[in-house]
Automatic annotation (TrEMBL):
InterPro entries: Trp_repress, Trp_repressor/repl_initiator, TrpR-like_sf, YecD_YerC. It comes from the Bacteria. GO terms for molecular function: DNA-binding transcription factor activity; sequence-specific DNA binding. This is TrpR YerC/YecD. Coiled coil: none annotated. It comes from Clostridium fessum. Pfam families: Trp_repressor. The lineage of its organism: Bacteria, Bacillati, Bacillota, Clostridia, Eubacteriales.
Amino acid sequence: MNKKLKTEAVDHLFQAILTLKNTDECYSFFEDVCTVNELLSFSQRYEVAKMLREKKTYLEIADKTGASTATISRVNRSLNYGSDGYDMVFARVKEQEEAEKTEA
């Protein structure tokens, strides 16, 4: 964990995020907390990370997401040398999708 990132204020923000119950609540909260560009940047990096894990090329990713090669490279570095946050979330999303298929 990045010690520069770990502050009481960041803890409060993450605790607040953990109270959100659904996508609509996420939209309401994040529209208030973030600028449109910040939120679009977050979502773009998430899409880039998914595509990198799917072994897409930088060119394919740039074409589909509009991300620069610098952004793609930064996300790739996070995937390879970061805190494994993306992979944790990807695994949980996959589990959730499989559970929903089973229920249907």
